[in-house]
Design goal:
The chain is an alpha+beta fold. Helix content is 22%, strand content 30%. It contains 10 helices and 22 strands. It has helices at 43-51, 93-103, 108-121, 137-149, 167-184, 195-201, 219-224, 229-234, 273-277, 347-351, and strands at 4-12, 18-27, 32-36, 58-63, 66-67, 78-82, 155-159, 187-192, 204-209, 212-217, 241-250, 254-258, 263-267, 283-288, 293-296, 304-314, 319-324, 328-331, 386-389, 392-396, 407-412, 418-420. Strands 6-7-8-3-9-10 form a 6-stranded mixed sheet, with helices on both faces. A 5-stranded antiparallel sheet has the order 13-12-11-14-22. The protein has a 5-stranded antiparallel sheet with strand order 15-21-16-17-20, with no helix packed on it. A hairpin with a 2-residue loop joins strand 4 and strand 5 (66-67). The two termini are 27 Å apart. The protein binds adenosine-5'-triphosphate (ATP).
Amino acid sequence: MTTVALKDVTKIFPDGTVAVDNVSLDVADGEFMVLLGPSGCGKSTILRIVAGLEDPTAGAVLLNGELANDLPPRERGVAMVFQDYALYPHMSVGENIGFPLKLAGVEDVPRQERIADVASALGIGDVLPRRPHQLSGGQRQRVAMGRAIVRRPGLFLMDEPLSNLDSGLRAELRAEISSLTRELGVSTIYVTHDQAEALTMADRVAILRKGVLQDVGTPTEIYNRPATLYVAAFLGSPRMNLLEASVYVHLDRYITLNLGEQALYLPWNDYRARAVAHYHGERIVVGVRPEALTPVAPDTPGDVLTGRIQFLEHHGHETLAFLDVGATAIVLDDMAAAPETQSSNGRLRRLSGLMSRFTGRGKQEPSENGHRPSEPRSVLHDPQHRRRPAELAVRLAPYPQISPGQSLSIAVKIEALHFFDDRGFRIDVGWR
Ligand code: ATP
């Protein structure tokens, strides 16, 4: 099946919009690659460039190792599936699925056989005579999938194919699409703004922000070791807590991470200590996911923070407590555009995100996989970025015997902390 390589691809539209900014990305044979990011980050433009529907302003597109910039769309061996299905309303389901074969001149009998095979694999064999308006949303999406796979393409390009469906059906089709593409062994580039979709379906995820590639990796890699503050803040539900910290090094002993009213201590034998020690006397961003915080009894020794509960959010299977520990949160305004899946009252949205306001140092070492997003300027200098008192999200058992205003102590898993510099880059690079 088809391999894809984008080399330094940039797309600038005639009105000056930089939709894709110097993106390099490889998709291996049979790989399921998800492009993830908020609306307007350039996902669809990349997909359209791969399909040949849009020319890159600069850079190269290679299909199976061959330069494909000038290859017409129909010679690329790709099949696209869109959010709005794009079915022909006057054709039956069978005719819709078989249309690409008809165009390719496939005879009637083998065509009908292929249509029946595909329809049965997708569980829509019984609706072949119907018209699209006589189908449910899920069935329509299956027809669109059927039309894409019937030609046995080397590459699937899917642009938010499930976003018109309700959440139950979306989860069901998510699993179906994943297993179908793997069964067929077809390389796939799948565009979504939904992190749950990306993390559950992808072999690897590429995260974009304003046309710039932020990180590429397996779902586990990008979740456990996000390359940038943006990725850290974008992934996770509830999102990662991001706190401002001042660094003080006590050589050969430990590093104090001063959070304001309280502090955490990074032992000198922690593998990240030397990298963090470079920031002695400066401020960095410390990230901690809610799963790295465990409620403990007051006065428990060790890495413990204590704070007052600001509010509680009940989610049935768990309750989230939001704790004021006297720290400052890092907030980046464009995270507001990112979808928030877990919070009904929007307060998590306020918690999440990044800021930065410290002085720029511009560390730009590439990580081991050679990837380093080319951030145009220090996010920390942007006057739009704001600081606010942190409300640390902590996971509790459902409906705990505790109320807002009460004090809560939490143990912090120091080995699960994340560190980012003033430009929003992970401090312990070279980790993958
Ligand atoms: P969405 O999830 O909303 O579809 P996206 O991440 O797919 O967003 P793109 O559609 O790739 O984003 O658009 C990237 C940027 O390029 C946006 O700012 C968009 O407004 C802009 N853009 C897209 N097409 C054009 C065009 N033909 N002319 C000018 N600007 C464009």
